[in-house]
Amino acid sequence: MIKFLDLQKINLVHQQEIEERLISTFRSGWYLLGNEVKKFEDNLARYVGSQYAIGVANGLDALRLILRAYIELGIFQKGDEIIVPANTYIASVLAITDNDLVPVLVEPDIETYNINISEIQEKITSKTKGILIVHLYGRIVFSEELKNIATRHNLKIIEDNAQTIGAEWNSVKSGNLGDAAGFSFYPGKNLGALGDAGGITTNDEDLARCIRALANYGSNEKYINIYQGLNSRLDEVQAAVLDIKLKYIDTENQKRREIARRYITEINNPEIILPEFPEKEKEHVWHLFVIRTKSRNELQNYLSENNIQTLIHYPIPPHKQNAYKDLNNLSLPVTEQIHDEVLSLPISPVMTNEEIDKVIHSINSYPNRF
Ligand SMILES: *Cc1c(COP(=O)(O)O)cnc(C)c1O
């Protein structure tokens, strides 16, 4: 059975180093806001190239806290509009609505699955204050045009970098392209913890200070509360694990690229639409390898019968969820088509050549039923 993602194997690659560090963290007697978090934050900031990094409890909180901090700083007001891709994981939209901001959904580009930058301009109103870009599936979405739109309209660019740690655009890492970025270290992400974890990077000192306080009960100084904050801290145990795994992220991302390259070169079933391998390979870290086909469910069943586990990212777009009844009537045909047709193949730094061969062979022998 080829698992979609073998988390046990992924983490056991670093078994000795992780176990030693976990034991020393356990024995230290210090479990929150300590040296492990400080070390990881410093290393994450250095890795991303940003001035500040803040560990938080998870990726959704990372995005919520960035938006909340802009409200606390008076830069956003409740009711302001934030542009966001319609094709994303619901967390991107939840972060916006949780802050009483209004999500303005923009269709993706069918080639990259990322927000269609050329459709952003027409969605901007006097209430638009930010663009929450999502580097979906591990592929960076960014351009000079996007930067110019943001500058022209005085909009903050916030990156949802949950899926794309380590990708680069013109030698700048994702997480350092906009004004602030949220990371998820959910176990299945390219840099995964052993539970929930998240982070924020920015070069904005005021924003960083505000976020740090908000994540810690609204306090930068014990028992002095400047905001009505929340508790969203990264803990020492998760930070210790992440600090180790961060050292290997480039090597692991490169392995993902090699698998993506093989899939793209060797899968040749005419029923299957393959993703594009970007001209500049560093723009993609292949968190997911997403193909499209009209007969998605049949293909998924067929692969399952052949002991290959696949997943769908995502089966229902945010605007069609019961959670967003007020958005249910929006017509977003590109997004809806993507959700009907996509299938994610196994990809991970620990896949063997035999497993990759088997996935390619199985897809190529999938019968053409049309
Ligand atoms: C995983 C993910 C999140 C949320 O991260 P959690 O750590 O699970 O809260 C947000 N946005 C995107 C695009 C994600 O893939």
UniProtKB/TrEMBL annotation:
It comes from the Bacteria. The modification N6-(pyridoxal phosphate)lysine is found at K189. It comes from Chryseobacterium flavum. The active site is at K189 (proton acceptor). GO terms for biological process: polysaccharide biosynthetic process. Belongs to the DegT/DnrJ/EryC1 family. CDD domains: AHBA_syn (cd00616). Signal peptide: none annotated. Keywords: Aminotransferase, Pyridoxal phosphate, Transferase. The keyword Transferase applies. GO terms for molecular function: pyridoxal phosphate binding; transaminase activity. This is Aminotransferase.
